[in-house]
Amino acid sequence: MTRVLIALTSHSELGDTGRKTGFYVSEAAEPWAVFTEAGYEVGLVSVAGGRPPVDGLDENDPVQQKFLAAVDLEHTPVAAELDATAYDAIFFAGGHGTMWDFPSADDLLKLAADIYERGGVVAAVCHGPSALVNLKLSDGAYLIDGKNVAGFTNAEEAAVGLTDVVPFLLADELTARGAIHHPADNFAVQTVADGRLVTGQNPQSAQLTAETTVKALAG
């Protein structure tokens, strides 16, 4: 049985705007649907454990409702409680909250590195690639150094009015770590696969990024 882990942010404050954030529900729900359809066992993990904060929920979206009904959001484990050998892939869902806690979530990053170095797939969508900014392999190299990636673009951050709110611009930071960032038009579907690294640009890319992860797992 192929097992995939969906990683979620535990950060709920959108900088000092007074607005709430969290994980963007569609970016977990749509991949969950793709993975369960493929016959995978899907687990959740969050940075702080317990109930992660939810953002972007569409009460009328059947995929999101099915996801929320099927998973135990109240009791997500932390990475330190999990064993990398039990998982074939990890998928970092986005949401602006990830920008604050994914880059410093050391246990989560180590879990992802271990999955990758065992031959597994690391995938991320939208702001989820913020996890890749500080993700190092056992030799000390950044996983994304020299790799082709997608992620929320500077133009998209400007379009949603949060350029000066986020702690860094994701596309710039990915590039600074040696990644080759491939931006598409604002909110166009864009998924980039580089071997066992699969990344997507925005919420619109969540389903394709998950489908591409399935292909990467199939070898």
TrEMBL record:
<comment type="similarity">
    <text>Belongs to the peptidase C56 family. HSP31-like subfamily.</text>
</comment>
<keyword id="KW-0456">Lyase</keyword>
<dbReference type="InterPro" id="IPR050325">
    <property type="entry name" value="Prot/Nucl_acid_deglycase"/>
</dbReference>
<keyword id="KW-0346">Stress response</keyword>
<dbReference type="Pfam" id="PF01965">
    <property type="entry name" value="DJ-1_PfpI"/>
</dbReference>
<protein>
    <submittedName>
        <fullName>Type 1 glutamine amidotransferase domain-containing protein</fullName>
    </submittedName>
</protein>
<keyword id="KW-0315">Glutamine amidotransferase</keyword>
<feature type="domain" description="DJ-1/PfpI">
    <location>
        <begin position="25"/>
        <end position="214"/>
    </location>
</feature>
<dbReference type="InterPro" id="IPR029062">
    <property type="entry name" value="Class_I_gatase-like"/>
</dbReference>
<dbReference type="InterPro" id="IPR002818">
    <property type="entry name" value="DJ-1/PfpI"/>
</dbReference>
